[in-house]
What does this fold into?
Amino acid sequence: MTAKQFDVIVVGAGFAGLYLLHRLRALGLQTRVFEAGSDVGGTWFWNRYPGARCDIESLEYSYQFSDALQQEWEWSERYATQPEILRYINHVADRFDLRRDIALNTRVAAAHFDASRSRWAVTTQAGDAYQAKYVVMATGCLSSANLPDFPGLQRFTGDWYHTGHWPHEPVDFAGKRVAVIGTGSSGIQSIPVIAEQAAALTVFQRTPNFSVPAHNGPLDPERVADIKANYRRFREANRQTAFHADFRYNAANATEVSAQERQREYEARWDRGGLPFMAAFADLVFDEQANESAAEFIRGKIHEIVEDPETAELLSPRSMVGCKRLCVDSHYYATYNRANVRLVDVSQHGIKAITPTGLETELEAFAFDVIVFATGFDAMTGALMSIDIRGRLGETLQQAWAEGPKTYLGLAIAGFPNLFTVTGPGSPSVLTNMLPTIEHHVEWITDCINYVEQKGLASIDATADAQEAWVAHVNDVAESSLYPRGNSWYLGANIPGKPRVFMPYLGFPPYADKCKAVADNGYQGFALSG
Ligand code: FAD
Ligand code: NAP
It folds into this structure.
């Protein structure tokens, strides 16, 4: 059977895959998108758990490549819900007529580079074969769900769900005894909503997380009209902060102002809500003492909100604020004041097994009708490493990344020509509002492909030297901050056996400047061959 030929194969139909298709088509390139899910949407297709919504304000967590699109779409809330974001993605797929080039229910199992022909051979899990000159992995950095290997899960007689693989039908918690395992962003968003519905909710917490209130609500039409009238300026302000146009970076250091000034600033940010809390002081992620002042402030708030002092203490993190993405919640801490909610600390005595009727820790046995795993993802590398990717010399990605992921600019991998990654390790990725970062990567990658095509070249491959230098730079920048000191998924610490490497790159505007300089200099750090 002869393999079907394309110019470009894109893997994944989330925000990244859809925009890639739109751009590649505009270049006249025959493009095929393969998506494992049964519809488009990526993160927002899979994570349908109750309470799921964005932590970046809707007007910024949206595409900006089309002014018509950003003018016509109306967001209803400050932080859009998952169903609203999914409706938006579907609107984009229809508006730009993208569906006809997307193969759904199609998981890519392998991609092997044939150096003699400078083409990728791509095989799906169903065994279908395709070839393309370029492959773009738009596989998502939080798309490979982590289900811990608890013994006994197959014998559980109740229902169980992972937040990252939530069913399409509504889950009815009414009258049920429910367990939630995990208190990261997914747990923190879902727990308050599940608590309102369930007869009893038990939360199993291994590590508490810092969370700030979203203060979510309907969008003010006047503010929306104002932003829409100046959308370009608004987006540029967002780009400068990497998170929010209205981030209000404070240039002062927490360690250099009075205790009253620190309190005033933290209070103001708490009242406003959301991720701009992290911009309260310039030294928050660089100085331990500064970070501790923010941590102390949030712990104080937890003790103010949670009535039972023991529960409040258990919920109070001792880690660094922001060492893993700060959570943005709606009534999370107050949920522990409900009579039907119990917090169980599994930091010292972990979950031993799932039993047919519930689960047991080293101290106690519990009975449940439903277990919710809010246990996160094999982040940044998981989706890529589960594909059998082989480069120029037949080396697998697993071999190339045995000591941890290495990329050039988070966009390319030395030895894997004509292959690109979106928001992979070495990209600012999860340390930003991801939509502008995705758009940036997509535009850079498609410009690069266009350059290779216009020059009539066969391939482009990051050099090992450029890659080494970039990896060293990513590490140096990370080391200048407190980030690597946290025990987070940014470092791969949540997956047993995963090499500990700080994966995202800290600093969006400088990153975009560096990418531009590389392109302007004829793709410096890449080997181009004819
Ligand atoms: P994804 O949306 O993850 O899409 C990747 C797609 O690739 C998936 O549909 C997957 O099925 C498919 N795929 C993977 N491997 C294969 C394969 N081998 N074959 C075929 N298909 C494959 N970021 C923010 O900036 N703000 C937020 O508020 C925010 N909220 C989030 C909430 C949740 C619950 C999660 C999990 C993440 C959140 N993120 C947020 C990060 C979010 O992942 C990105 O913002 C963005 O949606 C990623 O888009 P993407 O297209 O790069 O990847
Ligand atoms: P996560 O932050 O990795 O949290 C997973 C939770 O499960 C942690 O509390 C973890 O505890 C716990 N856990 C894992 N294995 C366990 C085990 N064996 N026993 C007990 N507990 C266990 O994952 P997430 O909450 O899905 O969030 C991942 C990222 O996705 C976020 O950081 C964010 O970037 C993004 N996200 C964003 C939003 C949003 O607000 N828009 C919502 C959801 C997700 P430990 O910490 O001890 O490992």
